[in-house]
Amino acid sequence: MNQPVPNIVLHAADVHKNFGGLRALSDIDLQVEEGKTHAIIGPNGAGKSTLLNVIIGRIPPTSGTVVFDGTVLTGKAPYEINQLGISRVFQTPEIFADLSVLQNVMTPAFARRDGAFRINMLRSVDSEAEVRDEAESILSDIGLIGRRQDHAGSLSRGDKRRLELAMCLIQRPRLLLLDEPTAGMSRHDTNTTIELLKKIKSGGMTKVIIEHDMHVVFSLADKISVLAQGRIIASGLPQQIKEDPRVQEAYLGGSVE
Amino acid sequence: MLSLSRKDLVSLVVFAAVVLTMPIWLSPFGAAYPGLMQKFAIYAIFAIGFNILFGLTGYLSFGHAAFLGVGSYTTVWSFKLLTMDILPAMVFAVIVAGVFALVIGYFSLRRTGIYFSILTLAFAQMSYSLAYSVLTPITNGETGLLLARGDPRYVDQIFGAQMNLAGLPQPTLIGNALGGYGGFYLCAVLLILCFYVSQKIFASPFGLALRGIKSNQTRMNYTGFNTKPYTLAAFVISGMFAGLAGALLSITDPLAGAERMKWTESGNVVLMTILGGVGTLFGPVVGAWLIKYFENIFSAINTNMLNSFLSFLPDGVQSFFVTVLSKFVGEGWHLTLGLLFVLIVVFLPGGIVEGVQRLVARFRGGGQRGKATSPQPAE
Amino acid sequence: MNAFLAQLLNGLDKGGAYALIALGLTLVFGTLGVVNFAHGALFMLGCFCAVTFRYLITIETVTIDPEKLSPWGTPLEVRTPLVQNWFGDFGAVLVDYSVPISLLLAVPAMLAIGIAIERGLIKHFYKRSHAEQILVTFGLAIVLQEIVKSFFGANPVPQPIPTDLRGAADIGAWLGMEVHALTYPWWRLVYLAFSLLVIGGVFAFLQFTTFGMVVRAGMADRETVGLMGIDIDRRFTIVFGLAAVVAGVAGVMYTPLLPPNYHLGMDFLVLSFVVVVVGGMGSLPGAVVAGFLLGILQSFASMTEVKSLIPGIDQVIIYLVAVVILLVRPRGLMGRRGVMES
């Protein structure tokens, strides 16, 4: 009875989403605790990306609400949601291909510092030493510091993903949404990314992560929700999920490794 | 606050020197007379402004001539109604063009890509058609808006300025007449100022945000930028540059006609920017100068000049070459222009500035990566 | 009511021209994915096919008739077109009907021009950005019109309507109204019928031939058709040639209504883009409907009653419609989702 009440920072309540006649999401109730890493797993087509898109405001839900720290997200523009402290890594990296790696990381820092719109014409990007130092330190962390002057478009796919992660991290978001952050990465890169994400974990940032790779999921997640056919069929600690028979069935009868 | 990075400062000093010494280095090219040099400066301002929109945000406007025309009309009206002094005229022209750009931009920027281009084109064509027809009381229709001796000039009257009894009054800068080189230096100084403003924008976080919009609008939105006001600000700023250019056209030659708003004029500024190099600082200036120079030179060449130039050839060969070449000069200058346009887009999508950069890189032997500066629409 | 019908009719032939130009424009855009700013120039080239043809068949011989004297007392010069010398009366008919007959020249000529442009220039721009496509075709348009200007000069070159088709059809009488209550020039009627015929032909071609089927499939989903191993390149060339022919013949038949000059293409280009956008990018029926709609609207806007109500409306109606449609219904009247959108 005296258990401390966990602080729910993100709450998707009673969310439904229909595409035409197709039910993509039904009856979703997702609660994410502050400071935790919450993984959403499920077979292909289970509605994982749709759920993420509903949370971030890219797709409006048919019914239900998403509340972030007391603010209703539903109906807000993506930039407003970001300004509340939510950043997102996409499945296909969304970066500024024409800009340098360093500029890619500095740009989001200006959105954090100056807000959604400010005509800042008098200062120059080069004279923003604080922002640049911060960007360079994050680039060192993710191992891209040596390529800071290169065009981001010239990076490998794996490097683009890490760059996108860096762009989110510099915003110091309260909630970080990751859509398969290691898909298409080599084993080595995957491990580096896991280490990096673990390091952020200690910083107290809340994360929601969609992932196929069970190695990644069980290395990072504090809590796991399993999505199948648009419904959450199980939610709990990693150990509970591993042993849940419904989850094993959802994964085509195979056991979760 | 007003400082520049060392590299930009060097660029600015070099640029200022080049612009101010035009009368010297242009004379071997036969172009060192004020009338032409003014045009160089004015169209460079127009192109620099256009580049702030197209070069940074990637939004391709096909209607910028409207702002050029609005600036011209406002200036002539300021001359007619208030005073022959150019300062208020320029201020009004920039403000009115800015307001005009705000309205057109507000609607046009609701769409991207080719839809945006067509919207700007439609707005500009509407302005052009109306200037020719219904708005004749303001624009004086086909004749164009001219100064008249009977204009009221209320402010000048209050200050009891001497009415120039012989002929039409001339524009003045705080009481000093602006003839010949005076007009050129006015345009030159304003060009340097505009170049500086453009440098500040390119180097600023605001400029970085605009580039982000060109590169990936989705990422900008999910990064917390409200992109609409950014693009609108860029649109208005570039409209104000066009307004200033229009004002200078009317200051150096006090009349304003609707043909300045025609879409071919919009196409011209696109061409200048592309030719020089989209999204670069010097590109639009270089493009504007080259086009205005060749327009001036090529359109002045006639068959006689060709004949005397090619007189060393045998008769038959000579007349053949003269016939062929004469299609490309004089009246046929636009043919050369069109070919140039096609060749540049096909072979040098980054424009002349990028071509030079590539050459320099090759001479240095460095395996520098090619910069992706080819024009791209906002997606 | 009559005034209303008259304006409706007046708009139809203009609408037919708009529809034909927009049809080719949207066909090229839908299949090749190319924004062609030189399409208006193709219409203009069609016009000058008619001019060229007439020029060729009216090359004359000059003979001096010693029997007769001109009013100045000099021997009378008799000018006879060569074709008349060769073919007699048939030659005279040929000259009289030069505009419609020049279609025979225009079709192969426009096809050749279209194929040459596609092979020589456009095909290198399939993968480039729309902005670059706009720029390169804009440059091409300038080149084409300047070439025409250097051959034919800057002044409009009027083309005659065949003698039999001059005058006006008494449509009112056909509809049971009084005689001359509602008349419509024969040639405009011919143009309307002609444009409907061509539009019908294009649609039938796309509907009932295997080639057309592939083209339509390509408009719906370019990638899949490309993956099916169909020789896209050759088809693209033919589609572009077809669009050039349609624009060209639209121009040929329009010459008696509007004497062509070298920059006619630019004037029509802006209009036809507006038509395409209003109809919906990539929608063929949309282009046709919007073409007629805008032609009719333009004709109504130039009625004195309307002009006195809203001054200047006749000048801007087309652009106004474009702006409203783009802002309210960005996909146009019949556009599909996702065409030219981010």
- Class from helix and strand fractions of chain B: mainly alpha
Q: Which descriptor suits the 3D outline of chain C?
A: globular
Low-confidence segments of chain B, ≥5 residues, pLDDT <50?
A: 367-379
Average pLDDT over all residues of chain B: 87
Coarse morphology of chain B: globular
Gyration radius from CA atoms of chain B, angstroms: 22 Å
Can you characterise this structure?
The complex is a heterotrimer of chains A (257), B (379) and C (342). Chain A has 257 residues and is α/β, with parallel strands linked by helices. Chain A folds into two domains: 1-85 and 173-186 and 203-257, Rossmann fold (3-Layer(aba) Sandwich), CATH 3.40.50; 95-172, no CATH class. In chain A, 35% of the residues lie in helices and 25% in strands. Chain A has nine helices and ten strands. A six-stranded mixed beta sheet of chain A has the order 6-7-8-3-9-10, with helices on both faces. In chain A, helix 3 runs parallel beside helix 5. The model of chain A has no long low-confidence stretch (mean pLDDT 86). Chain B is built from 18 helices and four strands. Chain B has 379 residues and is an all-alpha fold. Chain B is globular, with a radius of gyration of 22 Å. Chain B has helices at residues 6-20, 22-25, 34-57, 65-81, 86-108, 113-132, 136-139, 154-158, 181-203, 205-215, 217-222, 227-252, 263-276, 283-300, 303-309, 315-326, 333-347, 351-364; strands spanning 145-146, 172-173, 176-177, 255-256. Mean pLDDT of chain B is 87; it is low at 367-379. In chain B, a hairpin with a 2-residue loop joins strand 2 (172-173) and strand 3. Chain B has a two-stranded antiparallel sheet with strand order 1-4. A two-stranded antiparallel sheet of chain B has the order 2-3. In chain B, helix 3 runs antiparallel to helix 12 (227-252) and helix 13 crosses helix 14 (283-300). Chain C is mainly alpha-helical and 342 residues long. Chain C has one domain. Chain C contains 16 helices and four strands. In chain C, the strands form two sheets. In chain C, strands 1-2 form a two-stranded antiparallel sheet. In chain C, strand 1 (60-69) and strand 2 form a beta hairpin. In chain C, helix 1 packs across helix 10, helix 1 (2-32) crosses helix 13 (264-279) and helix 6 runs antiparallel to helix 12 (232-254). At the B-C interface, helix 6, helix 13 and helix 17 of B face helix 7, helix 13 and helix 16 of C.
